[in-house]
Each structure stands twice: as C-alpha cells, then as structure tokens.
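Narrative of activities, Objective 1.

The group set out to show that a structural description can be obtained from nothing but a protein's sequence at a throughput compatible with the screening campaign. Below is one input-output pair from the validation batch, recorded exactly as produced.
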Amino acid sequence: MKTMTKNKNKETKHSSLIVRWVSIVALTITVSFVIFSVVVYQIVSRQSLDQQEEMSLNVVTTLNRTLSSIPDELEISNVIPSLSPATRRILKGEPAISDKDSTNNAFSDNLIASISNPDINSAVYNKHGEIVFTNGNVTPKFKSFKEVSKNELVKRNGHQILLTYQKVYSSVNNKLTGYIVVSNNMTYYNSLMKNLLHSMVAISIIAIVVFVVTSYILVFNVVKPIKRMSKVAQEVNADPNSGARIKELNRDDELENLATSINQMLDRMQSYIEQQKQFVGDVSHELRTPVAVIEGHLNMLERWGKDDPQILDESIKASLQEADRMKHLIQEMLDLTRAEQIDVQYPHEVTNVYDTVKRVVADLAMVHPDFEIRLDEDDLPQDTEIQIYHGHLEQLLVILIDNAIKYSTNLKQINVSAGLTKKEVNIIVQDFGEGISKEDQKKIFNRFYRVDKARTREKGGNGLGLSIAHKLVDSYHGEISVESVEGQGSQFKLTFPLISKKKAAKLKKLNENSELPKSNLE
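Output recorded for this entry:
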C-alpha cells in the first residue's frame, strides 16, 4: 500500500513538469521585462528630466543676467524698471506686444520666451527672503540654501515639480543682492512618464501572456513524447514480455533519437529474455535424453550390472559418451547465446580474411588427410579486412568445412573459395555429398534441426552448428545461404560487407582503447 502511494506521488510530481517549466519560463520572462522596463523608464525619465532642468536653467540664467546689473539689494523699485515693458505687461497679464512697441523691440526681449511658459512660475526674493515680484498664479516659496544654485524635485498631488534656486550677485560689486526661485510644473514630463508607465505595464502583461502561452505550447510539445516514453516504460516494467513500443514521433530531433534508442533497448532486452527462455527450454529438452541414458545405466549397475564386467564396461563407456555429448551440447548452446550478443562483446573487431581462410583450410587439411581440401583465393587481395572477430570467422569456416566433411560420400573433396566484389567479401564451401532437399534447405538453420538422411546422431552433432553459423553471420550484418542438389552435394556461401582501410584503422584504434582496462587488470 505504501509503495503504491509513493508511486502515485511520483506520478503527481512528473505530471507537474509542464507547470514547473512554464512557471520558470514565465518567471524568467517577467523578471526580464521588469528589468528592461525599469531600465527604459529610467533612461527616458533621465533624458526628459534633463530637458526640464535645462528649461528651468534657461529661465534662471535669463533672470539672473538681467538682475545682476543692479548694484544694490533687489527691491521692487529697482527690479521692475530692469524689466522690459513687454515683460512687465506679461507679469501683469497683459499682451506681450503693445501697439506702442515696435516689432523688433517686442521680439528681442529675451525674457518673453522664458517666463511666458505656463509651466514656469518665477519669483525674485531679496536678501531677507521677502518677495520682490512673481509671475503666474502660484508663487514659488523661498527656502535658504548654501549653494550658489540648487535643483530640487518635489512631489505635489501625484506630480513631480522641479524647483530651481539661484543666488543673484551684482556684476558691479559682486555682492549678494537677492534670490531667484523658479518652479517648473513639468506637465509634459509627468504626462509622458505616466503614459510610458501605463504603456509598459500593458505591453509587459500582453507580452508575458503571449510568451507564457507560447512556452506552454512548446513545453507541452516536448513533454508529450516524454509522457509517451514514460507510459511505455511503465508497461514494459509491469510486463517484461510486453510488445509496447514508442510510436514514431516524426520530429527529427533529439527526442526522436531518444525514442528510437529506447525502442532498440527494449527490443534488445526482450531479445535477451527470449534467448534466456529459449536457452533454458533447449537445455531442458536436449539434456533430458543423455541424462536419462546415464541414469538408466547407473540404475542397472546398482541393481545387478556391477557384478558383470562386460555390462559394467558397456555402461561406463555409454555414460562417458553421453556425458561428452552433453558437454559439447552445452558449449554449443553457450556459443549460440554469445553469438546473439556480438555487438556488445566484439563491437570493434577487424580480421584479415586472406590469412584466416588460408590458416583454417591448412589446419583442417592436416587434421583430415583422407580429404582433399582445395583453396582458391586468387580473387581475394591479401589486405582484405572485414568487421568480425577472428575467432568467429575461424569458427564459421570450421563449422562449414566440418559439415561438408561429415556429409560427404564417395568423392572426398571439399572446395573452398574466397573472392572480392566492390562492396562484399564472399566465401564459398562446396562439398559433393548427399545434398539437401529444397524443403530441408529452409529449415537447416533452425536450432536442433537435423535432416533425416544426413543429420543423424550416428554422424555426430546436435543440430546447432548451422544455427550458430547463421546467428554469427547475422550479428555481423552478413548473409549465409545454401544451394544444394540431392545426391550431388551442397554449396554454402558467406557474404560480409567490405570495410575501407580508413574504417578498419578506426575500428582497430577503438578496439585497442577498449582493451586498455583489461590489460591493466591483467
């Protein structure tokens, strides 16, 4: 019960993968947009504020230039006359241009452009902080300050206001005569920053929603095949014999490669399970007879045969013969099982075909002097190499030549030939024996299959030789075939893909590297 609960909790965690990924993406995008918006807002704010400061400074500079010509402390009596008639009319709320003024005089007044801005409120104070004059409806308040000039940002009614303070020194005697205070309402600045803030918030929200939806689609597209893989893995875990596989994703990316690899792994795992079952079944089936024979002889000896020397000798010989057959049978079955795992045990082996064929034929010719074993390898270059473990190529040749010798009749001759085409290496073993019927040719590579006329126990063998040969050739991506005519003989043909010298060198190097740990252990 606890295990089931744990599994459910794990599945719940796995099911929230999309939520977690989308949350991370959303958080990343949100933080990025916030940082970007803050940076842009600050840049725009700084530039706009600089413009407003420059505007206030122009007003202060213009007033200061006009008032600095007064030698005494600023008072209404000396400040107002210093201003032009047009400026006085503006301060009184009258038109800047009078019929009495010439056009040139009106437009040459520098103060007009400065103090006619509705955002600008100016005030002049004397040394005691008493107001001398002001424009507009709101008079900027004075407060003492130590610097010659000072800028101050204040917030009123939710709006930023820029206050600029300036000390006025007489250009005649360089004495402090009063103060200028300019208040800039910064209507454009406040409106701009408010609209910018609203726009950025709206754009950020829309962008975040769009990116979250997009990321959800993308993440879901990635997680969906992962869920398929997980489902298949759970089915196979529940039933190792299950044929469940990941369907083709049609993505042409890493997930497609992963799905293909998992399917191949599951196929191999199931193949190993089938091999194990078949091995156990074959062993139990094939060992039953020799074990029964040995058991029968031992029972007979126990009852009465041990007192009869002849029966004792026959029973011991028969038991040893069956034990030897069991030994060979087990070895062949192990060879067959190993042949199905070539790509794991011998992934980088390379063998010279010319040397191997020549050596095996010479050895078997010496072992069987009553047979004429001919070798024709004129069409095979001496440097021809294929990807196979040399022991397995030798085993294949031994199986086929031994098979040819075993089932030869009157003509004790075996022909072995090896040749090369553009892309393949061909090895042919031909005998002139009993031959194989067309019906039996389809079955001779099956496990424990024996042709009634030729593959009897009297001639030896367990019916595994050709099965081992077929599995070895198939594991090395080759082909084995047979052509036979009853009463005339058989011809077995091995075909292997030819490898280039460059690939052979690469495989040899990989093989040397993979053998380094083994040599160190030895």
